[in-house]
């Protein structure tokens, strides 16, 4: 098993072209990199006990932020009557469930390098793959739908105004 930590880098191919989603994706990457930096630091410490709780709470915050982001995406999908909403939502639920399991394992069992690296790889690899596949499929749908009568920007502005009114 690889036991190295790697920060996740934002690349141009991850841009959806939807400002609000891209901003949330950037924020997720920043939070994930904070987790990775803390995990790498804990791995170097001889006494890990006091740092593990902070690492677990960073993971918990990352999970909470992912849930917030997924809620935004799901509101967009509902508003746009996205045909693959249920499948996309199931992907979100699967991710959140697995990250919750990893969080509970870290909280209950304490630190292990194997667990910290698994969290790093899962939360990074899954998120990047999700953007490149499911989110890009959603963007294509939104682009096609908005081309019927409005530009994508106007369409999404209306969606986000609707979301804002309901929150």
Keywords:
single chain, 167 residues, mainly alpha, 5 helices
Structural class: mainly alpha
Distance between the termini: 43 Å
What profile does the largest beta sheet have? none
**Principal-axis shape:** elongated
The number of distinct β-strands equals: 0
Q: Strand-residue fraction?
A: under 5%
Radius of gyration: 18 Å
- How many distinct helices? 5
| Low-confidence runs | none
Helix content: over 70%
Averaged pLDDT, please?
85
The topology string of helices and strands comes to HHHHH
What features would you describe in this structure?
This protein is mainly alpha-helical. 78% of the residues lie in helices and 0% in strands. It has helices at 19-44, 49-79, 85-109, 113-146, 152-166. Helix 2 (49-79) runs antiparallel to helix 3 (85-109) and helix 3 packs antiparallel against helix 4 (113-146). It is elongated and about 60 Å long. 21% of the residues are buried.
């Amino acid at each position: 098993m690889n036991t190295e930590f790697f920060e996740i880098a934002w690349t141009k191919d991850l841009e959806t072209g939807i400002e609000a989603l891209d901003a949330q994706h950037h924020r997720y990457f920043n939070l994930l990199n904070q987790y990775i930096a803390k995990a790498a630091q804990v791995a170097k410490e001889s006494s890990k006990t006091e740092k593990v709780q902070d690492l677990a709470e960073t993971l918990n915050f990352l999970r909470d932020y992912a849930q917030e982001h997924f809620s935004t995406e799901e509101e967009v999908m509902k508003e746009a009557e996205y045909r693959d909403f249920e499948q996309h939502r199931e992907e979100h639920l699967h991710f959140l469930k697995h990250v919750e399991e990893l969080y509970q394992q870290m909280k209950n069992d304490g630190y292990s390098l194997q667990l910290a690296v698994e969290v790093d790889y899962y939360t990074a690899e899954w998120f990047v793959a999700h953007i490149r596949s499911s989110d890009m499929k959603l963007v294509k749908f939104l682009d096609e739908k908005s081309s019927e009568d409005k530009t994508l920007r106007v369409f999404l502005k209306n969606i986000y105004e609707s979301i804002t009114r309901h929150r």
